[in-house]
Amino acid sequence: MPRIVTLTMNPAIDVSTSAECVEPTRKLRCRMGRRDAGGGGLNVARVARRLGADVTAIYPVGGLVGQMLRQLVDEEGIDSVTVPILGQTREDVSVVDESTREQYRFVLPGPHLHGAEWMQCLKTFARLDGQPDFVCASGSLPPGVPSDFYARIAEIVDSWGARLALDCSGLALKAALDRPVQLIKPNLGELRELTGEALPDEPSMVRACRELVQQRRVGAVALTLGADGALLVTADRAIRAQALPITAASTIGAGDSFLGAMVWALASGKDLEEAFRYGVAGGSAALLASGTELCRAADVRRLLPQVILQDVADDARPERARA
Fold first, then answer.
1. What pLDDT is stored for residue 319 in this prediction?
2. 27 belongs to a structural domain
3. CATH code at 76?
């Protein structure tokens, strides 16, 4: 059983529900809500655990919401290493308008972490017992945490000789890429923000990903494109996966399910191409689940044979790789 460690600096309880019609002013009578542990790293942990990994999740908790979050994580069979904070752990809310099937998502910023609190998170991670097969740091940084926090995490993982998957954006992602990172998983908007380029077509996306691999210390870029599928780019190869024809019950957690399935596959010893296939199946399976449920293992394995990978004609490859 592979051992995976996830880090979630801005965890949440995700509340999902629906109402007949979402409109202003009027009091909305909602259906019975569902609560799930949330935040990027915790979502990855939930998916990896369902697929069979031994998962340890590290995250800060505060207040009554934090206690409830810990209980939800325990119910998923995930080992928790928590760091107490003064602020209240956040809650996020998603509401489906039943008349249009549109989904409204309300995401709170999370509590401010004081210097001693985020430094304790860093120390707790660095002192973790036993070396994991794979580390995944995912999600936004809450107020008070410096933008180079993930760069410090990457340095610790590198000193262990372990592998790191990173899913974040903005300054946190840019700073982290000065350290060795096995895998990053931006969406198109995040890649545009990182590169400052419009990236209007597939060749420009491949070139941008290839430059990150060549100029930074990134092993591979898995670029998720929503309804347009995904791209996997390494130093010498670019692979395209088309989206599977699925009518989405919910899009929440599709990116985290993609990453969770891919990290599980890599930690289990599967090669990068097969892990990418699992990622696409995981992200697709998440679309079948309502609210914040994430993908189910049975759906991931059922959809896996349907994932078709194609090599992309790639002018950005080094000459020696093309020969």
1. 44
2. no
3. 3.40.1190.20
Tokens encoding 9: 């600096």
In a domain, 24, yes or no: no
Determine the Cα–Cα distance for residues 42 and 167; give it in Å rounded to an integer. 12
Rounding to the nearest 10 degrees, give the CA dihedral for residues 225, 297, 290, 308: 30
Please check whether residue 142 lies inside any domain of the structure.
Answer: yes
pTM above 0.85, yes or no: yes
Phi/psi for 38 (5° steps) reads -140, 180
Write out the H or E segment, with its range, that includes residue 175: helix 170-176
- How many domains in the chain? 1
Q: How many CA atoms lie within 13 A of 142 on its CB side?
A: 28
Residue 50's contacts (CB-CB under 8 Å, 6 or more residues apart) are 294, 295, 296, 297
First to last CA, the chain: 39
pLDDT given at position 322: 36
Q: CA angle, corner 1, sides to 48 and 287, nearest 5?
A: 20
Backbone dihedral region for residue 110 (phi beyond 0: left; psi -120 to 50: alpha; all else: beta):
left
Contact between 298 and 50 under an 8 Å Cβ cutoff? The reply is: no
Residue 1 pLDDT greater than 80, yes or no: no
- Give the Cα separation of 90 and 68 in Å (integer): 11
In this prediction, residue 315 has a pLDDT band, given cuts at 50, 70 and 90, of low
In a domain, 169, yes or no: yes
Q: Give the residue numbers spanning the domain of 51.
A: 3-18+32-322
Structure-token pair, residue 54: 């031994």
Residues tagged active-site: 256
The model's confidence at residue 2, banded by pLDDT at 50, 70 and 90, is confident
* Whether the predicted pLDDT of 270 surpasses 60: yes
CA distance 217 to 176: 9
Determine whether 271 is exposed, middle or buried from the number of CB atoms within 10 Å of its CB (0-12, 13-18, 19+): exposed
